[in-house]
Amino acid sequence: GAVVSQHPSRVICKSGTSVKIECRSLDFQATTMFWYRQFPKQSLMLMATSNEGSKATYEQGVEKDKFLINHASLTLSTLTVTSAHPEDSSFYICSARGRRQDVNTGELFFGEGSRLTVL
Amino acid sequence: KQEVTQIPAALSVPEGENLVLNCSFTDSAIYNLQWFRQDPGKGLTSLLLIQSSQREQTSGRLNASLDKSSGRSTLYIAASQPGDSATYLCAVSPDSNYQLIWGAGTKLIIKP
Description:
The complex is a heterodimer.
Chain A: E1 4-7, E2 10-13, E3 19-25, E4 30-38, E5 45-51, E6 57-58, E7 67-73, E8 76-81, E9 90-98, H1 101-104, E10 109-110, E11 114-118
Parallel strand pairs in A: 2-11
Antiparallel strand pairs in A: 1-3, 3-8, 4-5, 4-9, 5-6, 7-8, 9-10, 9-11
Chain B: E1 4-7, E2 10-14, E3 19-25, E4 32-38, E5 44-51, E6 56-59, E7 62-67, E8 72-77, E9 86-93, E10 101-102, E11 106-111
Parallel strand pairs in B: 2-11
Antiparallel strand pairs in B: 1-3, 3-8, 4-5, 4-9, 6-7, 7-8, 9-10, 9-11
């Protein structure tokens, strides 16, 4: 299957700082990437959808200025948590679909996730 | 509004047993349904994808069925192993945009 690499896997930062998480598709061109957030013992919540070369579409309740998403190339999308606070501590996961036969069937491929802890 | 429910929320069974995980959805107009596995603190692994026109998919010891009319899907795991312990999530795509609507998951523990 297609490979999606997410980095970093764990990050601890101080309150007020910004953190960038990268999501890369390694063997296919990701025309669309999705960013999810998961709080402990809860299901994944879609934060935003990004299409290569255009602005991300955010879900209701997700602050655009706080969670900056960039999808500048077909293999890379980034999520930047700006001015992070303890309540932003969560597990962030990206997924991608793109130009490959198996991906075009609707299957999404997921990164390993990034555990953010804001002190 | 589509809602996805997974029952039970947690399940613990002895090694070797066959088991069934359930997923139900309220709107039968789906594009596809996927089953995922999530290990603690890790990302997701896609297990099986069932298109809306399909009834079931199989991969190794896993078999997923789909009954759109009743809004149900099951994930059957044969001859369970301790390595199968994980949280299993099902998600439906309402259309070809592939945005997923998630169930809350079933935490499965296989006891050696």
